[in-house]
Design brief:
mainly alpha, 27 helices
């Protein structure tokens, strides 16, 4: 007789609530134990009534709302990895609030929830649009969500970097802070969540019919498009309300439905009932433990970052049970034949790159703000400062372009890029450890960044070894580790240490500290790694066809994938050291090369290297001259350029 797990859900909720209650009870009985409760005005009682209790109530409400949002996303999109974090919904709300806080602060008092809702809706529309064109596959949806999150994070970083005095207070809140000083936020959340929950209860029956399949549910009268819009709208609204109130709380929407499913919940009504209860209990327990362990620093450590640290390992643990299929990369169908060979676009790309490099070296802003061409007695002195930055950006962009070509050809997914691999996040983690624990010079930070990148790459490959280094497993493992590393960096940055400003400057992709030696090393590393990639062109021509054809012609599948992923990881790590972890050059370079007719591996990598290097040098030039005498880091400029390119690519994709 098989053992049934249908009754594990209530037990799990009770267990989590009991654990959280035991921890939280310390805050409730502490004033009594110390004998400080007195008639009249009592500071301990005031803190209990207006800070501790509202915070615990906020944790319960926010956890329930995020878990319900994740359950709705997973049910309507048929995606076990969908939640407000992986789909970029929370990041979109956070960006909208940052923009309004800086440029239109008056709107926050009257329509803070509306601002967050508009940001979440825009992010959700982009990500769901990607997913709809690819069958709502878990792989493509999570990749699209990560790209949107990267862009929203990049723009938020630019605004924070340029307006630190005004936006510094938003940093801890943006990472998910549950600290409260009154009952205003929990009471406001309560009635908003209740209203959305009523709508969710009305759509449970048609949502249950989706399990029968699209054709069967349509024959029973379900309006699929209308149902998807309504359910996604409810999920986005819940995430926007929570983000507007407490910031970004990560992975509760992923963990809670997963625990509900593992506890026996199978039908949509069970998921929608038990997921919010588990989410509320889980966030309640997490925040209670955080307050107990952090002590007086509990109000300054973002709970959202802590939940991401625990949620990312769960995403890694789910990978073996995620069923994905390899996708064969299809060539772009042309209505007319090209009149030129591959040499023509490669020559044009080379000429364009040389022109951009020359402009970046010799054109700039003068002391009065006007455009000047470099000449005269200060020519050599200024070139000695400007040339290392230009050539470091050139080498980094070329490596990112080639790494993007490798990833897109291996995975068969046009959304793959070096940022997705998580190596740049590992390099960021290494620099954070160097700054906060060791504080070495630039050479030491370089060594720590390489070590962190290699360690993350090793973990990714080890976690994907059982699947024979399947591309989807590798990329999703990179997403999980990237989120976890970003959360750790967020916790370090929230301590208020002045070194957090240095870390933010490095993450923005600044070339300010690049000197001649660093640029020479960067260019040399890029030349060696790109040469190795070009030597593997035969593997990259055959592996996109699938596992069976590759094995039939004698290609060692596991070894070749391991070598190519490792090569892409090393190039990403080396490039990240100069241009930071936020860049879309690895996405734009291969696509522009393919649109120019460079479809084979060798010409596409050459074209992607030229285009990627030219784009990064152009981003450095724009960042140096656009708002002179101020400078915007090249990495952030390239991230902003990537968003319009992404929209154009989406509109043209059939």
């Amino acid at each position: 007789m098989a053992l049934r797990h249908d009754n594990l859900g209530p037990g799990l909720v009770v267990f989590l609530l009991l654990c959280g209650g035991c921890v939280a009870s310390w805050f409730l009985i502490q004033p009594t134990l110390w004998g400080t409760v007195e008639p009249g005005y009592d500071i301990e009682r005031m803190v209990l009534y207006y800070s501790t209790l509202p915070r615990l109530a906020t944790a319960l409400l926010a956890g329930a709302a995020l878990a319900l949002s994740g359950a709705l996303f997973q049910q309507v999109l048929r995606n076990p990895l969908a939640d407000p974090t992986t789909l970029g919904v929370s990041a979109g709300a956070n960006l909208a609030l940052v923009v309004v806080s800086l440029f239109m602060p008056g709107l926050l008092g009257a329509g803070r929830d509306l601002v967050a809702l508009l940001g979440s809706a825009a992010a959700a529309a982009i990500v769901v649009g990607f997913g709809a064109r690819r069958g709502f596959s878990p792989y493509s949806l999570v990749l699209s969500g990560l790209v949107v999150s990267l862009w929203c994070g990049g723009l938020s970083a630019i605004l924070t970097y340029l307006n630190q005095r005004y936006l510094a207070s938003l940093f801890i809140w943006g990472a998910g802070s549950l600290a409260q000083q009154s009952w205003v936020i929990p009471l406001s959340l309560a009635w908003k969540i209740a209203g959305v929950a009523i709508v969710c209860a009305l759509v449970i029956r048609p949502l249950s019919l989706l399990d029968l399949g699209e054709s069967s549910s349509s024959s029973l009268g379900v309006k699929l498009a209308r149902l998807r819009i309504l359910v996604v709208g409810c999920a986005v609204t819940l995430a926007a309300f929570v983000t507007s109130a407490v910031g970004v709380i990560g992975f509760i929407g992923l963990v809670a439905p997963t625990l509900a499913r593992l506890s026996g919940a199978r039908r949509p009504v069970q998921m929608i009932v038990w997921s919010p209860l588990i989410g509320a209990a889980l966030l309640f327990l997490t925040d209670s433990v955080l307050q107990l362990l952090a002590g007086g620093l509990g109000d300054f450590l973002p709970t959202g970052a802590v939940t991401a640290i625990f949620g990312s390992p769960l995403l890694l643990a789910l990978l073996p049970w995620l069923k994905v299929r390899h996708r064969i990369q299809q060539a772009v169908v042309r209505q007319r034949q090209r009149r030129w060979s591959t040499r023509v676009p490669a020559t044009v790309a080379l000429a364009g790159m040389l022109v951009i490099v020359a402009l970046s070296l010799f054109v700039g802003r003068g002391p009065g703000g006007g455009w000047t061409v470099l000449s005269g007695e200060f020519l050599h002195d200024i070139l000695a400062i400007r040339a290392p930055k230009v050539f470091a950006a050139l080498g980094s962009g070329a490596m990112l372009g080639v790494a993007g070509s490798i990833l897109q050809r291996l995975t068969g997914n046009e959304m793959a890029s070096p940022e997705v691999l998580g190596i740049s996040a590992g390099a960021t983690f290494g620099v954070a450890i160097a700054l906060f624990a060791v504080a070495p010079g630039f050479a030491g930070q370089f060594a720590f960044a390489v070590t962190g990148a290699i360690m993350v790459l090793a973990v990714i490959l080890l976690s994907s070894r059982r699947s024979n280094f399947a591309p989807e497993r590798v990329l999703l493992a990179g997403i999980a580790l990237s989120a976890m590393v970003d959360a750790v960096v967020g916790v370090l940055s929230s301590t208020g240490d002045p070194r957090a400003v240095l870390l933010m400057r490095w993450m923005s992709g600044s070339t300010y500290l690049v000197d001649g030696t660093t640029a020479s090393v960067e260019v040399a590393i890029g030349a060696v790694l790109i040469a190795l990639a070009l030597a593997a062109r035969r593997w990259l021509d055959i592996l996109p066809l699938g596992a069976a054809p590759s094995s039939a012609v004698g290609i060692p599948l596991a070894c070749s994938r391991l070598a190519l992923f490792g090569l892409a990881g090393l190039m990403t790590a080396a490039a990240t050291l100069t241009v930071g972890p936020l860049s879309f050059v690895g996405l734009m370079g291969p696509h522009l090369a393919r649109e120019a007719g460079l479809t084979r591996a060798l010409p596409q990598m050459v074209g992607a290297a030229l285009i990627g290097g030219g784009l990064m040098v152009l981003a450095d030039l724009i960042g140096r001259t656009a708002v002179a005498p101020y400078q915007i880091p090249a990495g952030l400029v390239s991230a902003l350029i990537g968003a319009p390119f992404l929209m154009i690519l989406l509109s043209r994709r059939q």
